[in-house]
Design goal:
Four copies of one chain form a homotetramer.
Chain A (H helix, E strand, L loop, with lengths): L11 E6 L3 E6 L11 E7 L1 H11 L4 E7 L3 H12 L2 E8 L8 E8 L2 E7 L15 H5 L1 E7 L8 H15 L2 E5 L10 H12 L4 E5 H7 L10 H9 L5 E5 L5 E4 L5 E2 L14 H14 L4 H16 L11 H12 L7
Parallel strand pairs in A: 1-4, 1-8, 2-6, 4-5, 8-9, 9-10, 10-11
Antiparallel strand pairs in A: 2-3, 6-7, 11-12, 12-13
Helix pairs in contact in A: 1-8, 8-9, 9-10
Chain lengths: 336, 336, 336, 336
């Protein structure tokens, strides 16, 4: 059954708006960051990673965001272009803002953390007037990400992008991606997440992220179905709620909770799992696949990313995902 | 024809959320404020004035807001209580914020201005968690006012109040009341006015206020009907657009533009006209009167207020409005 | 004995830098402000009051400060000019700042309080570059006041004025006038008060104000002589420490603690006592009078101000002070 | 001739207060940072570098500063301790501040730049109350650095440290180290640099840094002798003014301008030259050497640092400096 219909006549498959930053990944891993002496630089930020993932899978993509007017900003723009991502709406800040940073610490495959630099980050300075209506008018899908709602004027830019997407009929995907940095209060967070989610067709998040959104509501059992039902009353057609190791469930307005099998992986670190999953899943839905098959595709993409050192740079091509699934099916890959 | 249906089983006729401040009105008028030596203190703020107006007209009312923990704040709370306005959700600030002030200058009946003190104003510090769901659940009508959207956390408190009003079926009135103070940019203003207006049943504002909301839209002729039609696609049932001396027009989803006659007045100053008009109009609609009769009632209430020295304190009773209309009809009142 | 020598060849007797604001004095007094309905407007701010006092006493005076670009600001400038105070260095703010306000509450002659509006106050926006070196070069005396140290850039403007006064040989008077508003911390306060006091010839303050400055020092008994001795090691020649009802003591580097008799008064309120005392005292010292006679003159000036409704507007002329002293000496005035 | 006398009975040779951060040095050099893929982590910040330099030269040292409560902060503290620098007054921030960062770009030996992260930096949050009087009481020398004056409360902490140093008789060294980041205006900078410099015995800076301090003064020819003379009127005994390639001149109150020969070096990058020069020079003066010999020692130390990849980590021991000078004297080292 088809839950989401895409405007197939539009030339741009996928556009995302939001965070665009630098990951500095520890080269010496399996130790605390205090003992890490060198770091490798990658493009990062959840919506940037997903867009890179979509581009690697072969889609026409574009990014809407703001970069610092410095060496880090120029590196990001260049990397997007080398990945064939349209950057006509990647604006360069002129106020002296910096590029957000994420230093990663990999103590063990299951004990990873991030040291964030988000003060005065350029990506949060995107303004509503800088969002190009013409770009969104060309796009089949607009993806928004929660971190871009954390501050003005980026927050208003996201709402303006949502307004354009609604007007021009793009399918809207909301990757909740809640991170406490830069938000002033949990109440503020709940307010804007809810206002944005009302306008979205596909919502992906963890159970904890949905709990945060239900701060002023009554769902004492944290019941997925109550959560999903709220959004079906607005615009949603698919609500994916992730339960960590217990797996994810995709809810649809017909009352079905869709689950998919997972794949083994030789885990290096957990960063990037969600972004690659989102890319793989949205790609599948856009191909007209079932929700279950799309979820499997997302899982396989995630396995590839968590088996390698980077997030963005490890995003797989469709051939790599297909190959991974086949090798799993042949039993050639086992968990670490 | 009835355009708006009120939940008649609810005990509280009217609740408003937002600005609550002090007017300091020049005693020596018809001169520049430089030459004014004494000022008289009144409760002020558009939603407070409207609530006082509704209470004077005989309705059960309540206010949702925040006051400074000082002599000005205590004066405000006492004044509301003396006007039989419920203050259970008037919260006292504990951070050292001050009461917003408006010094009025009346150079002539048509040349009035306001000197505003809005820095660190207590009313803008109301938080979403302080808004009482139970109060809104008891209310037939919730009125919101644009100035409360100007800053966090008051902005989020308004969206939370809107969420409760939607959940419990209150009719929502939006008095645009745009004032440039405290807003960071015109873009920010447009974003939140639009997000709020999507959820409202009755929207009142000037043509210039609606223009401000259409900053990112296409309405080159500033056509009232294009403006109104947008909101009928969301929740609106009545959109009143005020054209200054050319009068106001109330648009309804059936395509009708309702107009009403106006009344003469001996004008002292123009302050408070909009607030008394709003009170009279909403009162009329709640009585089940036609839109035209309600607009006339609002006009008569406004005439009474602009003929006197204060805003809040001059809000008329129903008997006073009836009397004014009768005297106008008998030709006993002529314009100044 | 002469403790301070003034550069008598300079044409301007007295210049002050700092706070310049509006007092709104309750007209209905001897009640809480909640019950006050009308207020009368006066120029206020400690250094402004002192300057008005000096002008009334017949000296050539000037003010260095910043006013809001509004009706309040224009009223202040006009009032200074009508009192023959030079305003060539009274700068008008262009950023939308407001005029600081002080609402006074007079519950009884001994129970007075002030409700302050100091957010975004124009006087705190004076910059170092706006301070006219040529004006200070013409002045016998520069008075600085602690409130102007509370925020940047006013804080730096005061240090720049001190630098010019040192360079050109003006006698520097520091009226501590500590008020907690707008200071971020008690530590910050102590730092800048001390840096400024190091450069001053005459320092006036209450015992509590000197305690605040000794936050990082050792004076467990709060011993006036330890306090004064510190400043004699820098530039001070007179240190006046006020002990409320026990009276004031003026310390000098020769080890003497000077005291003076006080006068009876029919007290209306206590506001303005310190400012009129400072004006009378500095005037006396500039006349070459003994410290004791100068202190008496300050006391008499203070008695006149606390017997009337305003501060600035009640500042006495020399004839009025002389007359007050004579009437007290004849026993015509007794305490209220 | 001896210009500065040190309190030889104190057990701690050298204490510095101020910036303490992380350098991330490009591993792939001689290219724009856009093309640098990996970075190596070092302790950085001018006063930290100087302290490390003093410790390497064999002195008893301590640091007064604040570090972030994260992996970067812990790395810094550990590095200081491994270099035998006392860290009893290195305070850990508890507000979520981050460690300042400096990404270095080395395009060529003469074309180097720095990308700074100074927003919400922990080192600028040191408060006056956190400065240990007992530590400063034990120190022969206190070094302050201009960047710590850039913001409150670090600015007040420096003035408090100066106050303690004066009280206990430490020799005070001011390394101007002006960097525009975090200062609000050039006027503000001039104000606090001057207030601090008034209290210092030895002042080191570039001609441009002294120009910045003379913003409100008259020195049209930028005459070193006018500059130096001003500070001799306060506390200074040595004022070193650096003229880039033309070399440095050390002025003393006797009117002498001291110059020293320089050494050749195989330059990798210019970062760290000033810090190692300062360490070498102060070390020499503390040994009782002539100013000229101390300047030579500083130059040799600087040559060693600019010939290597890091700043802090390349600070030489006394044996290394001696060896470098000897090899230069034997003609074994020539310029690159």
């Amino acid at each position: 059954m088809t839950y989401v219909t895409f405007p197939l006549d539009k030339p741009l498959d996928f556009a995302a708006i939001g965070r665009l930053c630098i990951d500095l990944n520890a080269n010496e891993i399996h130790r605390p960051m205090e003992e890490t002496m060198t770091f490798t630089k990658y493009v990062g930020g959840s919506p940037a990673n997903i867009t890179i993932g979509m581009a690697r899978l072969g889609l026409q993509t574009a990014f809407i965001g703001k970069i610092a007017n410095d060496q880090m900003g120029r590196f990001i723009e260049d990397y997007l272009q080398r990945n064939r991502i349209e950057t006509t709406n990647v604006v360069t800040d002129q106020t002296g803002a910096v590029t957000g940073l994420a230093f990663t610490e990999i103590k063990s495959p299951t004990d990873c953390s991030i040291l964030m630099y988000r003060d005065n980050a350029a990506d949060l300075l995107l303004t509503p007037a800088e969002v190009q209506e013409s770009l969104i008018a060309r796009a089949k899908v607009l993806l928004i990400s929660g971190t871009a709602l954390a501050q003005s004027p980026s927050r208003e830019a996201v709402f303006q992008a949502l307004s354009y997407a609604k007007k021009h009929g793009a399918v809207i995907v909301f990757d909740l991606d809640y991170r406490p940095y830069t938000w002033k209060s949990a109440e503020e967070t709940a307010t804007y997440y809810n206002l944005a989610a009302e306008k979205c067709d596909i919502i992906l998040g963890t159970r904890e992220e949905f709990d945060m959104m239900e701060r002023f509501e009554t769902n004492p059992e944290k019941d997925d179905r109550i959560t999903a039902a709220k959004w079906f009353d607005y615009s949603a057609k698919i609500v994916i709620i992730k339960h960590g190791k217990e797996g994810s469930i995709a809810y649809t307005p017909d009352g079905v909770g869709h689950r998919a099998k997972s794949f083994p992986a030789k885990v290096v670190k957990t960063f990037g799992a969600g972004d690659s999953y989102a890319a793989g899943f949205i790609y599948g839905i856009m191909q007209g696949w079932t929700i279950e098959k799309s979820m499997e595709y997302g899982s396989a993409a995630a396995c590839i990313v968590i088996s390698s050192h980077s997030c963005s740079d490890a995003m797989p091509t469709a051939a790599q995902v297909d190959d991974y699934i086949e090798r799993c099916n042949r039993g050639e890959i086992t968990a670490s």
